[in-house]
Design brief:
32 helices; disordered C terminus; Serine Threonine Protein Phosphatase 5, Tetratricopeptide repeat
């Protein structure tokens, strides 16, 4: 009998609690609606009831806000003082009272309450954090700072509140004090460097005065000199230089650390690779040379040598103005290095050398021999063999041996199904089919590749598939056959015959949809022949006469890049990048165009907005 009664009591109690919770939720939503609609009288009644029921501080705060808005200051003051009497340890109530005085322009009375709260602080971190957060919520940052400084004294440096103070200084925009807190943290514990980097990145991005970068560099440089043994400060400075793409300055700091710690050059190689990926080849080459000069016994010697040659290769081949003499010197540098090492260590070097010989020096037989001998080298990974076969296929296609090229592409694809290397081989095979006018089969392969995990392959596959789709409207496909033939000739460096073929398309089919493609391919040939002004005219013709065609944004970006990097006309380039942003906001080139426009305009460029909340979280 007793058990039944107890069960009935518990069920009844649970039901009442549930009903009360539901009623509170409903009243809370209604009260907020009244508050937002400025119906403060109605809102105050509900918030008073909610506070009395739940004792939630949030409801009490809203209740006081309503009374203040209703100018019922006497009652608001009375209610706050009543709560202070109930719980004198809740120091946030003094802040609430002070804030109410401040809204009445009673500044002295407000300060008196704020100071009273700080004087009553105990050795209790929860109380300290609650009071500081209350000041921050009320935007009383100076008093939040006082709380943390007072807490240091009370806790006797048991906890020093550097992160919390840095947060307050951020809100005050007292950046010098903020940076000093971060330096102090790192001097005590280097493990916080990643968190500090994240916070600094957010702060730099939101620096309206744009002076934080300079202040941060100056402060870090001073502290690097003051604490030469604290490598972490140098690392933070290097991080800042990298954010601003000042790789030469980053390299100076990295080399200093390397020498001080007698390291083997790992950091230096990392900076060199970053500089290389950002096309700053001079800094990259300096970095790799530094490691090479440590001597052949250094464990990073081969790595540095390979990276140096690759950087030199990119610097020369990416420059449209490169000379034949530069290519010959590059070939010689590669051959000298390859003779020094085992093939297994330098697979990439041999591939690069074969590419140089075939595509820049017309030494296809030598290139083919190099790669064929490399395939048979023992202990190569399956992926390395596939990459060699893809390069070999490219060179065989260059030489006109389409059958052998297809065979190598197929072998690479079969050995690497469903991975990027296999997709690359599949794309090469599909492109070769396009060159040889097997359009339907090529398009079927390309449509599969449009879903590739490699964005570059997917984009290339989409572009070629769309070209085929847009220009195979009849059974003959004559115009596309001409154009595919011209593209193959251009690929094989038979530029004169390629131009003749392209001109025949224009003369025979003057209104065909391929005409912008024809102009774009001609421009590509002009750049190979170093006829840069002629290339610029062709790009301009596309943007003017084919403004709404698929290649218009490609041509405009290429024209801007040509003016910036080759024709030495930065003002024209800036104008064209700006036109790109206005005319083609959805183009794949828009992000890069915006960066380059801002750089030419002299802006400080942040590559990406930090992915943080509205403000840093320091709790």
């Amino acid at each position: 009998m007793i058990k039944k009664w107890l069960l009935f009591f518990l069920i009844t109690l649970s039901f009442e609690v549930y009903v009360d919770a539901q009623e509170n939720t409903s009243n809370s939503q209604l009260a907020l609606q009244y508050f937002q609609n400025k119906e403060f009288e109605k809102a105050s009644v509900l918030y008073q009831k909610l506070f009395e029921t739940t004792q939630s501080k949030t409801y009490f705060t809203y209740y006081i806000k309503c009374l203040t808005e209703l100018n019922n200051i006497e009652l608001a003051e009375k209610e706050i003082k009543k709560q202070i009497k109930k719980d004198a340890t809740d120091l946030s109530l003094y802040v609430e009272l002070g804030n109410m005085y401040k809204t009445q322009n009673k500044t002295d009375e407000a300060i008196e309450q704020y100071e009273k709260a700080i004087k009553r602080l105990q050795s209790n971190q929860i109380q300290i954090n609650t009071l500081a957060n209350e000041f921050i919520n009320k935007r009383e940052f100076d008093f939040a700072e006082k709380v943390y400084l007072q807490a240091r004294k009370i806790l006797k440096n048991e906890y020093s509140y550097e992160f919390e103070l840095a947060n307050v200084y951020f809100y005050q925009r007292s950046y010098s004090k903020m940076i000093n807190q971060y330096v102090a943290i790192l001097l005590q514990n280097e493990a916080y460097v990643q968190e500090i980097q994240n916070r600094l990145q957010y702060t730099i991005y939101n620096d309206q005065d744009d002076n934080l970068r300079t202040l941060l560099k100056t402060t870090l440089l001073e502290n690097v000199q003051k604490y030469p043994d604290k490598t972490i400060l140098s690392e933070l400075l290097i991080w800042l230089y990298i954010q601003e793409k000042e790789f030469s300055k980053a390299l100076i700091q990295v080399k200093a650390i390397d020498k001080r710690n007698k390291e083997t050059g790992d950091r230096v190689i990392a900076i060199g690779r970053l500089a290389k990926s950002n096309e700053n080849y001079d800094v990259a080459n300096t970095a790799f040379k530094y490691v090479m000069e440590k001597g052949k016994e250094n464990p990073n010697y081969i790595i540095a040598q390979i990276e140096y040659l690759n950087s030199l290769y990119l610097k020369i081949t990416k420059n449209p103005k490169h000379t034949q003499q530069e290519i010959l010197e590059l070939e010689n540098n590669y051959e000298t290095s390859i003779n020094e090492f085992n093939k297994q260590d330098i697979t990439q070097l041999i591939k690069d050398l074969a590419h140089i010989k075939a595509f820049y020096l017309n030494k296809t037989e030598e290139a083919i021999d190099l790669l064929e001998s490399l395939i048979d080298f023992p202990k190569l990974k399956q992926s390395e063999i596939a990459e060699i076969k893809i390069e070999l296929g490219d060179i065989l296609l260059l030489s006109g041996d389409q059958w052998s090229a297809t065979l190598y592409f197929a072998q690479a694809e079969k050995a690497n199904e469903n991975n990027p290397i296999g997709h690359e081989a599949k794309y090469r095979k599909a492109r070769l089919a396009y060159y040889t006018n097997n359009f339907k089969w090529a398009q079927a392969q390309l449509d599969v590749l449009k879903a590739s995990t490699s964005k570059l392959i997917a984009n290339d596959a989409f572009a070629l598939s769309q070209l085929i789709k847009d220009n195979t409207n009849d059974s003959a496909d004559t115009e596309l056959r001409f154009f595919a033939r011209a593209e193959l000739l251009e690929y094989q460096n038979n530029d004169s015959l390629a131009l003749v073929t392209l001109d025949s398309i224009t003369s025979l089919y003057p209104s065909h949809s391929l005409n912008d493609e024809v102009l774009f391919t001609k421009a590509k040939i002009m750049i190979k022949q170093k006829k840069f002004e002629a290339a610029a005219e062709l790009y301009q013709k596309i943007t003017t006469n084919y403004a709404y065609d698929i290649l218009s944004d490609d041509a405009l970006f290429a024209l801007a890049e040509l003016n910036e990097k080759v024709l030495n006309n930065p003002e024209k380039a800036k104008e064209l990048y700006e036109e790109m942003l206005t005319k083609y906001p959805g183009s794949i080139f828009t992000i890069e165009a915006r960066k380059r426009f801002r750089k030419l305009r002299g802006d400080k460029i942040d590559e990406d907005k930090p992915n943080f909340e509205e403000k840093p979280i320091y709790d």
